Amino acid sequence: MINAMSTPQPRDARPILHSATLPFKSGAARVVSLVAFTCVLLLVWTVFFVYHSFGSQLSANSINTNGLGNANSTESAAPADSFEGRAVNILISGIDSRQNQGDDANGDPDELSSIHSDTTMFMHISADRSRIQVVSIPRDLITDIPSCRRSDGTTSSAYTGMFNSAFSTGSNDTDIAGGIACTEATVEQLTGTKVDGFVVVDFHGFRGLIDALGGVWFDIPEDIDDSKSDLHVQAGCQKLDGKTALAYARTRYAVGDGSDLGRISNQQKLVAAIMRELMAKNFVSDLPSLLSFTKQGLSALQPSQNLSNINTDVGLMLSLTSVNRSNIQFITSPNQYSPVDPNRVINLEPQFSQVWEAIRKDQPFPATIEFTNGSGEDGQTNAPAQDPSASPSSSQSASASATPSASASQSPSATPTQKPCPPEK
């Protein structure tokens, strides 16, 4: 499947809606012996042990946003619960905090004085725990930002702007609690969907995760010489250390078409590579490495208070162990280029409303929406055909993506086979 948003198109083109890719490494699908079952129990015990060991750290990192966010809301804070028996919506925000990092900052000096929100994902877990749907929200999406209460007691004015500006507005450039609270309020207003909890992930901690893994094999698609992210690498399969991988996650203008949607795609592919590296590790037989990786991971995470409870987290994790990989689905919130500014995007209707209505009703994505599942395979939801009024939009999307696909196949750089990355031993 071709990501139509990754190449320049006419402003009136309706792109096929592409998804994030987060493949899992495939392995034996069935447990056929008592020995294998014992290994599974050992793995579950190990995960529980790690969570229990680092529970105090996770709780200490939790962010209290009570009283912050939408200034017009009169809703009281909901008490923490185990989410049992109901759907759960978790907001995941990747921030780029480069303050006081010196040579490790890797980026434009203008970006070193504040906290930036670079990645936002909305994760919906179905009430019956049979389905996980993840929607990425573009940072360059033009939307309404509500009035938000900040930690210093001030209140921002409502305005229309880029989606990621909500974080800066709420944080006053430095306060994470105010930033994520305003982002949460913006997401709820934008989608009409309630957020139950959040997790903030700092990009700088992302570097430590990769170093704890011993690096990550990744196929750089093209030579990169980017002074803004301090990234200077040649194309090809190579093992990236944490610093280089972080710079790649941050780079934008030196790769592809230079758009935010292109960077989202780059980050998703890097996350997929990290997942492959993680799944390839035998942490059960190497507990020191497991503890090191988990400690790095937890140091990079700051959850909402209701997600800092280890019993809640482990209970939620265990309830998801039987989810079929085909029912783990990743998409980008339906969008199209703005008619007034091709560097910005706006919601694509009716697909945008259809996606979020499905989330609110705890239903699968509609059949018009393409996704990537937990096995890294592209697909569409099996559902009745759409009404005729939806057909032009669908055919236009297919047409828009078909042209780049054909030209790519004729390109000299395209090859019938590709060497595996990492290289086969």
**Overall radius of gyration:** 21 Å
Low-confidence stretches: 1-48, 383-416
The helicity comes to: 25-40%
Distance between the termini: 29 Å
The string of secondary-structure elements, in order, is: HHEEEEEEEHHEHEEEEHHHEHEEEHEEH
Number of helices: 11
Oligomer: single chain
Briefly, what CATH class of the domain at 34-213 and 283-377? Alpha Beta
Can you give the mean pLDDT? 71
Total beta strand runs: 18
Outline the fold blueprint.
Blueprint: H1 34-53, H2 55-60, E1 69-70, E2 88-97, E3 115-125, E4 132-136, E5 142-145, E6 148-149, E7 159-162, H3 165-171, H4 176-191, E8 197-202, H5 203-213, E9 216-220, E10 224-226, E11 231-233, E12 236-240, H6 242-250, H7 260-280, H8 287-300, E13 301-303, H9 310-319, E14 328-332, E15 335-337, E16 345-347, H10 351-360, E17 370-373, E18 378-380, H11 391-410
Parallel strand pairs: 2-8, 4-14
Antiparallel strand pairs: 1-6, 2-3, 3-4, 5-7, 8-13, 9-12, 10-11, 14-17, 15-16, 17-18
Helix pairs in contact: 3-4, 5-6, 5-8, 6-7
Protein name: Biofilm regulatory protein A
Pfam families: LytR_cpsA_psr
Biased composition (Polar residues): 370-382
Could you write a compact summary of the structure shown?
Helix content is 34%, strand content 19%. With 425 residues, it is an alpha+beta fold.
